[in-house]
Design a protein that fits this description.
This protein has helices at about 25-40, 60-65, 90-100, 100-110, 115-120, 135-145, 150-165, 170-185, 185-195, and strands at about 5-10, 50, 55, 70, 75-80, 115, 125-130. With about 200 residues, it is of the alpha/beta class. The protein folds into two domains: about 5-145, 2-enoyl-CoA Hydratase, Chain A, domain 1 (Alpha-Beta Complex); about 150-195, Lyase 2-enoyl-coa Hydratase, Chain  A, domain 2, CATH 1.10.12. The longest helix is centred in the first third of the chain and has 20 residues, at about 25-40.
């Protein structure tokens, strides 16, 4: 995900949330947003946010929902809904799963933004680079990911998110079985054979 202009994403259009619209319309707005956020994690490919500017409210939620986020040094991240009487409860779902609780709650309670470096320090983004290197760094990560097997990435991504909701013992049972299943895949065996033979693997896709 990327944007043009000084703002990465400012979240919902507040005109859509005025009292002129009914509760059914408001529900649809938030349900569609939640569906988009959850679909990001269900997609079989890694999703990268390339952030160059301000990401607020649902825009901050979008960054937190992506698998990887690369930000320019000028980027900022905020959930300022509390300041206009609309607490960022849905963004809090993604923030609370990406940031330490006290950091997320300070953002939610005050609406004050995190700088790019603070976002990196707390784990909201994976990398911060100068603005003129943002495209290069994002594409570097993309190209590296594209060198791997698509089916193995899809399996790994789905398993990662599944085990994150499980207790430790269950997570190890789940991932142990997935490792065994991974070995039965063509690309699993191709990768091991290529490593042993000191050659590049030839993936099935």
């Amino acid at each position: 995900f990327a944007a043009e202009g000084p703002v990465f994403c400012s979240g919902h259009d507040l005109k859509e949330l005025s009292s002129e619209d009914d509760v059914k319309h408001h529900s649809q707005v938030f349900e569609i947003c939640a569906e988009v956020m959850t679909l990001i994690q269900k997609l079989p490919v890694p999703v990268i946010a390339k952030v160059n500017g301000l990401a607020t409210a649902a825009g901050c939620q979008l960054v937190a929902s992506c698998d990887i986020a690369v930000a320019s040094e000028k980027s900022q991240f905020a959930t300022p809904g509390v300041n206009i009487g609309l607490f960022c409860s849905t963004p809090a779902v993604a923030l609370g799963r990406s940031l330490p609780r006290k950091v997320a709650l300070e953002m939610l309670f005050t609406g004050e933004p995190l700088s790019a470096q603070e976002a990196l320090m707390h784990g909201l983004v994976s990398k911060v680079v100068p603005e003129d290197r943002l495209e290069e760094e994002t594409m570097k990560i993309s190209r590296k990911i594209c060198e791997s097997s698509k089916s193995i990435l899809a399996l790994g991504k789905a398993t990662f998110y599944r085990q994150m909701t499980q207790d430790l013992d269950t997570a190890y049972k789940t991932t142990t079985q997935v490792m065994v299943d991974n070995l039965t895949l063509r690309d699993g065996q191709e990768g091991i054979e290529a490593f042993i033979q000191k050659r590049k693997p030839v993936w099935s896709h």
